[in-house]
Every structure is written in C-alpha cells, then in structure tokens.
## 1
Amino acid sequence: MKRAIITVVGKDTVGIIAKVCTSLAEENVNILDISQTIVSGYFNMMMIVDITERDADFVKLAHKVESLGTEIGVVIKMQREDIFNSMHRI
Amino acid sequence: MINISEVSETNDMIEKENLDVRTITMGISLLDCIDSDLDRLCEKIHNKIYESAKDLVKTGEDISREFGIPIVNKRISLTPIALVGGAACKSSADFVRIAKTLDKVAHEVGVNFIGGYSALVSKGMTKADEMLIRSIPEALASTELICSSVNVGSTKTGINMDSVRLLGDIILETAEKTKDKDSLGCAKLVVFCNAPDDNPFMAGAFHGVTEADRIINVGVSGPGVVKTALEKVRGENFEVLCETIKKTAFKVTRVGQLVAKEASKRLGVPFGIVDLSLAPTPAIGDSVADILHEIGVEYAGAPGTTAALALLNDQVKKGGVMASSYVGGLSGAFIPVSEDQGMINAVEAGCLVLEKLEAMTCVCSVGLDMIAIPGDTKATTIAGIISDEMAIGMINQKTTAVRLIPVIGKKVGETVEFGGLLGYAPIMPVNNFDCSNFVNRGGRIPAPIHSFKN
C-alpha cells in the first residue's frame, strides 16, 4: 500500500477537518489515521491516507488538497510517507 | 506507523532549519564521445549529455514536490575534459569551443552547473592537460554554467609543482578576465589534492574514469538542523554533544539516501553515492560557523575551533555512514567563507584569518574555500598558498582544495558580492612575504612515506 501524510496547520476554526475529509472523499482517497492537537489556539493535524490508487497523479491530488488550505486559511501539505519513514525508522 | 511528532520534527527541519538536499548530480562518462574531429566531438558530447540529462531537472522537481523536501541544485559532472578533448584539440581555443558546447547543453537541459572542465595532473601534464589549464580563464569568462577543477597532487604521487605554479597565473588571469563581475570566474575554479571521482558538489565535481557510464550522486546539507539540535543540549558534556550530532546527521543523510534512490529509479541511472556534507549557505541559520559557536567558541577562529570542527566532522561521518548504503564524495563539514554568514561575521570581527582556516582544513572536508583576497596578490603567493594546502592533503591522505578569488581592483577591508548561493565576502589579508624561489623551482614534490606516522 502506498501512503501519504497530510498535515494541516493554522488558526483553529469550525469545520477544518470536515472540509479536508470531504475533499478527500470526493477524490476517493481513504483516510487511515488522524491525529490532532491544539497548541495555544493553533490547529495541528496529521492524516495518513491511502494513495495506492492515486500514485500516478500524486502531484495533481496534492495540489488540490493544498489549494483547499489557501481557501480555508490554513497551511496544508501533502507528502509521500517515505520521507518520514526514512528519517525516523531504521 | 509514523506519529504526529515525527512528522512535525521532519517538517520543522525543512521549513525552519533549512534542511535541504543540496544537489542531485548526474555523472556522465564522455569517454565514448572521443573523436579526432572537433566538430564531431562537440556534436557527440552535446547529444550524449542531452539524452542522458534531459529529464534530470524535471525528475528533481517532481521528487522535491512529492516528498516535500527542497532539492536546491540539479547538476551534471563529466569525464575530465582534458581526457575527452585530447585527440581533437590542437590549441587552448579548441578547448574553449568544447566549453561553449557544454555551456549550451547545460542551458538546454536546465541544470544549475556543469562540472568536469578538468585536468588530472597530480604527477605530470600531457599537452592536452596543459592546453586545457591554459584555456580555463577564457572558458570561464565566456561561459556561464561551467565549473573547472584541476587535481595537482595526491598521497600516492606527490605534488606536481609545475602545475601549482601555472595555476597561480591561471587564477589571476581568470580573475582579470572576469573583473567586471568581481572576478567571479575564480569561484568556479578549484585546485585539488586527492580529488574524489564521485564528488557531487561544485565547483569540484567531475566524473572519474573509474566510474560507470552514468551515475546519480547526491549531496545533502543541513547545518541549520545540527545547530538547532545542539541548542537543546547547551552546557552538556562532549558525550551528549557528539551523540546529538550523530543522530542528527543520521536523519539528514537518510533524506539524501531516499532522494538518491528515488532519482536513480525514476531516471533509470544507477545510484552512486551520498556525500555526507554539512554544506552551508548564506541564509541565516544555515551556517557551519554557527554550529562551532553553539559548540562553544565565540567566533569561528577562536582557540578551540580546530578541535570543535574535528569532532563535528567526525560525528557527521559516524552518523551519516549508517544512514546511506554508499558514502563517497567529499563527506564532511565545508568551511567556505563567502557562503557562510557565521564565517563572514568571524572574518569581520577579526577572529578568523587565512592561517587559522588552513589549520581548520586539516580536520575537515575540502579546504581554503571561497576566500576573497586582494586583486594585487602575486601569482607566486597564490601558488605558495596552494602548495601549502596540497601538502596538507598529501600528507594526511585526505582531499584538500583551494578556491581563492583574487578580486581585481579591491583591497583588504572592502567586500565583494557574488550573489545567490555564492554569497558575499570581506577581502582577507594575505601574508605577502615572498615565496617565489620556492614555487619557481619546477618539478614535483615526491610522494610521502606511509610509515613512521608522527
């Protein structure tokens, strides 16, 4: 399975998770895990998603998810999971 | 599975601490392009480079985008041109034609630099080697993306002092020919002892004759990451300090390994090596000198600097070696002056002088790098400085290099602006006592003995 990590950072408002999840659902991307914290009013979320089906058009998908961030005023980043595995797992 | 704090740690390194992959460098052998006809040679060189590297920049950008890691440079290194052009070139002007061909194809494929306008003359110069060396000033003045290097010595062969003496003149001539750009040409010319065949960093990259037809080498960076990690262990003992550097170097190098493997897979070119280097940039916080400061010296150059640099260099290697399946190139901490804001500050504060830099090069990667000196420095003095640095490499079985920039028309106290990754530099004073009787002797310094180490 190919996985990607989506991070969302920004000022906490209503519906951030809903909007990101809706956008992913429209793209038929399955969410495997979500964790989230709020540090002094700042929203910090990480999602692990399955991109096996979307491997070929990863860049297009990432662009869509990230431009959603601009719309709702948070910073969204989508990266392949490998970079984190490389750095943190032997 | 990966957790949120690990993700934040990685992304903080990238966003706040300037973690990047400094370069993906594709090494291309030009040995199969050799021809006795100059036109045909240039055409073959152009076609081979274009075909090999046409997707390099796009692949680098795709990887950067997908993994979220900046890849600052995409570069090409070539078989030393003195070997490739030897059969076709009858004069230095002929070599300049090859340089122009290289510059053209580098622009076409969109790379940042193309290295390998080089000659390997550690024991002696062929006619072609000498013609290439003599063509360097014109080649660097009339092209934009070419980088040149000359290997003038090695532990196995000794030092070719004829070429060292010649390069004193060549460096000054290059400075003169590019004086309208603050002698920028000299920033693209490196003199080496024990040059590695697989170095991905410019200006010294070339594709050695022992290498495969094509290869992908990657150079990592990350002084800012090491510095931030060390801020968290301020005041702790050397054991904690060294462990922290090792762990950080491991993480940084793993990113390089990932990028190298991915680039190799996508381009269908074998993976060569990862160069474990702390390569600074002029960006604030991306400085090796700042790490030395964090370790405990007021400015780079203060007493203790050489020891601090020695431990830093060694721990970076220890941490990095396990993170990559193949390590090579220059691997270590770089201490260029103009490309490192902390080094510039140290020079301006009067703490760092050329002689201290020379001592520092005994224990770290490369050598006297990106140092601006007065434009009226004598060629023999430049040759003398080169010979000192080459001797350090020869005796200590390590790579050393010299990249001096005599800035025509400028004196000590003035500064010079190179722009971009090359940064800016204060002109440093040079010891002007005469060494011409030494460098003018001619011939070679014999190879050193490998026993009785003292």
## 2
Amino acid sequence: MPKGVTDLSVETYNIHMMIFWWCVAIGIAVFGVMIVSLFKHRKSKGVKPATFSHSTTAEVIWTAIPVVILMLIAIPVAETMVKLEDSRDPDISIVVTAYQWKWHYRYQDEGVAFFSSLARPSLEARRKQSGVDPFAVDNYLLDVDRPLVVPRDAKVRLLVTSNDVVHSWWVPDLAIKKDAVPGVINDTWFKAKEVGTYRGQCAELCGKDHGYMPIVVEVVEADAYQAWVNMRKESVPQVAGTTLAKEQQ
Amino acid sequence: MTTAVADAHDHHDDHGPAKGIGRWLFSTNHKDIGTMYLVFSLTMFFVGGLMAIVIRSELAIPGLQFVHPEFFNQMTTMHALIMVFGAVMPAFVGLANWMIPLMIGAPDMALPRMNNWSFWILPVAFGILLSTLLMPGGAPAGGWTMYPPLVLQTGDAFPFLIFSVHLMGISSIMGAINVIVTIINMRAPDMTLLKMPMFVWTWLITD
C-alpha cells in the first residue's frame, strides 16, 4: 500500500498501519496466552482441569477490551471518512464516466472532454500470441492514450458514474477507489501535493476487457495545466451549441 | 403350527446394503450419503482445480498465452461457484452426515429420505452448471457474486445459472434442516446440549 501523494492518502495509510499493528498485538496476546496455557498446564505435569463453566468477570473483560480497541480504531477512521466525503468547494470538477472498456472524462467548467483508452503499445502486446514481449512495453497495461491531467494543489472533485455495468475508478496513490454505478453519481475528491504520473485500474469486474482499461492521472504545475487546457480546446473542432463534438474525441 | 412360528421367527431379511446402483440412488443411510457427499466434493474439487490451473497458467507470465479474456472470466466465475457450492459445502455436509449421528448417539439422520434428496439434487445442479460451458455465449463470466448489470450480459447460460444456483440452495437448506432437526430431537438420553461435542455445536450454530 503506497503512502500516496495527498493528505488523505497519508492518513489512510497511517490508519491501515495502526490497524495492522493492533492485529499484530492481538495476535501475540491471544496466541501467547494460548501457548503458555498449553505448555504450563499440560496433563503430564499433573494439572487438574478446571471445572467451572461460567465466569461473569471473564465475560465482562472479554467484552470490554474489544469494545475499547474498536473505539480506538473507529474514532480516527470516522474522522478521516468525514474528510473523504467532503467534496464541497472544488477548484475543478470532472465527470468520470465508465464504459466497457474505457474511461471518459469531462471537465465541467473548462469545456474539455475525452475518452481515455488503453495505450496502443499495450493494446498490441496484449493480444493472444501477439509475438510482442510485454516486458518490452513500458507500463504494460498501465498506460493510456490520453491521461487525466490536473494541477498540483488543486481540489479536484470527481463525479463518478457508468454508462453500462459497474466499474470502479481506483488510483492507489490518490487513495481513491470509487465505484462507477450506472444511474448513480458517486462523488469523491483529491488534492495531489506532488507533480507526477499516477497509475490505476478498474477495480470491479466489468466484462472481458476489465483488465484493459487503466487509469493514468498526470499531476502538473498550474501553468502547465492551463496550457494543456488551451491546447485541448484548440485541438477540438468547435460546433456551436453542442458539446457532442468534444465528447466524440 | 410350530413350523409356522419357527418360519415367522426365521424370516429375517438380509440387512446388508442393497446391491448395485440402487444402494446409492435410494440410500437413506447417513454413512452412505455422507460418503457420496465426500466423493462428490472431491470430484468437484478436481474440476474446480482444473479451472484454477487454467487461470494460474494464463497469469504465470504477462500477456495472453492460452485463453482469451472472455474464457478466462468464465474460468474464474465457474471455479468460484464450483469450489464454494460444489467442493467446500458438500465436504462439510458429508462430514456432518458421517459424524453427527455417531457423536450424539442417533441411529441415523432425522429425515433420511430428505437426506437422500439433498444429496441427489447436487449432481443435477452441477450437471446443469457445467453444461453452460458448451452453450452459445459461454459459461457465466460475471463473477460468482452474479451482480447485475454485468451478469445480465451472460449468454444463453443465464437461466441455467439461476436454476442451478437455486437447486444448490435448496439442497443446502434441506441439509441444514436435517442437521438441526437431528441435533435437537435425536440426541441419546443424557446427551444434553452442553455435553455435545464442539463439532456438533458448530453445526447447530452455523446451520
């Protein structure tokens, strides 16, 4: 699990590690007691078995301890989840629509929209008996023709939905895995703090090419982002009164 | 007169198992049915295991070597359904059939004829499920959880998938009823609930 490049991805990572260490501690405690008991109270030492069948004290203890541990886990988790769900006041809003088997991104205010599909080299190499060595392909199955481009330090809201079956938009470095459900718009957000290329995949079985619809997010500086938006606008033929031309890209 | 009495007295049937296939088809004996469950489970384990070999062979190195993605998804879906409903659950029920009557001092399961039905539904259900591999559109490939809308893209296999999974459900519900009724009603005198072995308790709770 990567620490990722957003504040919330770091928080998510820390929660994961906290719960992991709780599990380690519980494992050591439980198996420790069990091993010591088996060793110290074995029959060959002449230990007489206990005959009681009920102990209120023991029941209170084994109920109270898990309740306390669960509270210690639940409180920071709830705090982080509240932040994860708060997608208000974004700098950029992008509608992410899943298709069998590609992604479509529409920037709500910039007038930019495009499909993002598996990159050509991967597409050729992935065919059965293609004769192309996948190891020779850069970022095999993790590269797209047109990545999602966003500026650094901007709050990006994603409105995730689907055109056909359930998909899931998953980018580990952003700590986002959001289901794309037809007829439903799920929202989430991220604010990447580092410039870079972050890769992900569809995370909900969506048919035969489920493994061939990766996600690439390019985080760039604000001016580079603006230049990219202008470039995209120019490269798209403008048809008055319709966004259809843009979407057909 | 005396001969008649002696005749009646000597008129014992042979209590050995029935001969031939009938012994297994019509059995109400909990050990025979338990054995059939275990053999069926092992068979399905190998069938599901073959599919796992297809899956892992394809995944061994990047790129596609052996199968197409659509058949790969059929393998994962069928592997899961077969392992869950055809290998794991019948193995448990087979052990329950063998062990529970012995452990609680019962002569057989409470509902022996239903026991026979619970088992014999399974080969029919899995016959239907496996036959979908030969149907137009192939076997189910939307994952064993069968989520719509993806599962609606299954080809001709769709109604057969639904029917076979329902049959599996009917079989396991009948098996569960049998185990619960046996444990509640057929314990030997003085075998109270708290004296029951752990194995029997796990069955009473999980059923």
